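Obj.: predict assembly geometry.
Materials: sequence records (below).
Method: joint structure prediction, all chains together.
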Amino acid sequence: MELVKLTIDGQEVQVPAGTTVLEAAEQLGIHIPRLCHDPDLTAVGACRLCVVEIEGMRNLPASCVTMATDGMVVRTDTPQIIEARKTILELLIANHPLDCLSCEKLGDCKLAEYCYQYGVKKSPFINPEKHSYEVEDNNPFIIRDLNKCILCGRCIRACAEMTCNDIIDFSYRGFKTKVGPFGDTTLAESDCVYCGNCVAVCPTGALTEKQMQGKGRRWEYKRVKTTCPFCGTGCNFDLMVKDGKIAGVTSNPESVVNGKQLCIKGRFGWDFVHSDKRLTSPLVKVDGKFVPVSWDEAFNTIAKRLGEIKEKYGANAFASLSSARCTNEENYLVQKFVRAVMGTNNVDHCART
Amino acid sequence: MAGLATSFGSGAMTNSINEILGAELLFLIGTNTTEAHPVIGYKMKQAKRKGAKLIVVDPRRTELAAEADYWLQIKPGTDIPLLNAIMHVIIKEDLYDKKFIEERTENFEALKQTVEKYTPEYASELCGVPAEDIYAVARLYAKTDKAGIFYTLGITEHVCGTNNVMSIANLAMLTGHIGRESTGVNPLRGQNNVQGACDMGALPNVYPGYQKVTDPAVREKFEKAWGVSLPAEVGLMIPEMFDRANSGEIKAMYILGENPVLTDPNANHIKSGLEKLEFLVVHELFLTETAQYADVVLPAASFAETDGTFTNTERRVQRVRKAIEPIPGRTNWQTIMEMSTRMGYPMHYNSAEEIFNEMASLTPSYQGMSYARIDKNGLQWPCPTPDHPGTKYLHAAAFTRGKGLFQGIDHIPPAELPDEEYPFLLSTGRILFHYNVTTPYSAGINSIWNEEYAEVNPDDASRLGVTTGDKVKVTSRRGEVTTKVQVTDRVPPGVIWMSFHYTESPTNVLTSAAVDPITKTGEYKVCAVKVEKLN
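Observations (raw structure tokens):
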């Protein structure tokens, strides 16, 4: 592998040829701000926030699409760069609602983070044009507020490059440019499969999880990384937990199998956990009707009846179905129970069905 | 899984999921991956868009079939003639890997003899795939270096499921497409932990790690570890359990987290078996159709309420972490532990991790794993020692069984095919928006997709006088259900396709009682039905 050596903010770094300046800076622990860039998507250099100075180059190139070359000398924090970034942020918020107080994304909004970092409080432009799109919430999963969209195109690339469904793209031109499905319909009227990968990459409050609306601020949640309970792919994600309840699922980029990618079931199907149909107490059938009983009573009934049946008919009159939905630990204990306690090998699960 | 275990010695996905991205050819047979394993489906599409060739064998025009370079629209239940014909071409045109066959396999002559008669022209008559497509696909697969085969229940849920799998193994061995990066035979396992439940010995013939209950040395090891004497004879598989419940030999059952009334074939037979039991314990999240038959129902904790591990389809053991307190007040492992203790066999575990450690100590393929080691990225078995990095792909230097075993396999038609009285072929499967029978309890998902829509070809629809949204009665020799229809050319004429997620349209009342003789897997993919319009 060919290596190139460059200098960023006075520090030397060696990277494989083909590495971008932005990635090379990351290796030195230098975070260059970016809005349209996502390491899992192709780089497009659209937002220009990641501009840097490179000796010998006339303009400020976007570091996410500039390849590192041997001997390159890069500055990431000169006054000129800071001024350029400020202007970009000012232009972005000229047409962005500043209702951050009640924005669902606050705490996880990249636009807010960079405005804070660069001290951009309001746009200096006088009476700029503003969009007033209706917020789209006619599906159960994704809320689209295009007023907060900064046209970075990450969602479009997520749909095209992760899910490979190409449901959304830019439409119209100039100030009227917007992101949407073919024919400028809502997602509900499109062939969207609600994987929510667009939500996972959106840097602002334009795309948010409907299930999480109003449930808590992003920093209040405990994130618990776990493995999806649906199919056999084994995607990982974060359960967003607050006050002992799950409020939603968000992508965890550190997931070895799936990265940020999830499907509708993993991202939005978790709410069966808090279904009001969940059983909360053991039940015993009395005269054909289920009656709630204590755990103690349930265990006593089971021990007595299984004991009697084993005594009367022998171990092989008992059989058990374990579960391909349950954990390894649970399955291990079920087969141990069947073999060591009941004395039979009659244990199976629906591996074959 | 029995098929691959016979051919290779190990019944698991040979490669890793992310190796799909490096494949030059993906050969999909009997897998609707974008709906059943969506994220794996994304990766297949990503590979295709990067230039990989895509071959899809499916009677239905699935999303990937529509994107494929070659979509072979096979008649349901005719995979063996198709695969034999592909191998026929590869042998006839001298495209097979002689070195691999010589060094790594045995019994090649038997295969050669069997596939001799399966000319593409002959197979075409049986499976409906044009002969020229069979030639093209055979050449493409044989000549591509990095080629992976993927299959799911479209292969296994047939009376000849095991034979189907062994035919796939034959094909991969014939061209040496196994034991390399992005190159192998990959059964995509259905449920989140079906691989793990098998690994854990929730099977009637093996202890954890596929150690046979009939092997005295193995039994002795477990007897010593568990401090009891253990039964020597193989137990019953699910269909046998319900047969014996019906005949009165099985008197009591404990069912954890399964709903056979909705998911198993020939549901009426399951129900009558459950009714005859003297005592039934069901341990479940919800009062399911199966739980209704119970004498005692124990409330279960969900994945979010427990620590533990799942093993995914690529053999990766990953952590499940407790996010909230168990809604019923105790985790499932605590419940099983207490049942056991009350039955006079005390179990004492303070955590899921202690259970894992006991299991790993008795399971060679998991022996090198611990919660600390799997914390971040999991580990893929086999992982026999604490310094073993896990196994990305199987059979690299040798097959688990030593030499790969070729077998000559002939066509076995489905047990029940359409006739005058039941003129339609019913095939079943999953849809994207649901997962078996849990997702209907998700409010969001159920608000959009809450009823069955049986797929009917436009030709058949016009004959039946139905349009999308109309209700029909679907009847087989075993039962009847009503469902709405969706008129679509995704299915060929003569085929009806239904999912099985909904209580109101319990499709498995219809499905066949026929099973694969080795695995006892039900033939969900083929049965004969009639369809009548309802007003």
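Conclusions so far: Helices of chain A lie at 21-27, 79-94, 110-117, 154-162, 197-201, 264-268, 295-313, 328-341.
To do: check interface contacts against the pulldown list.
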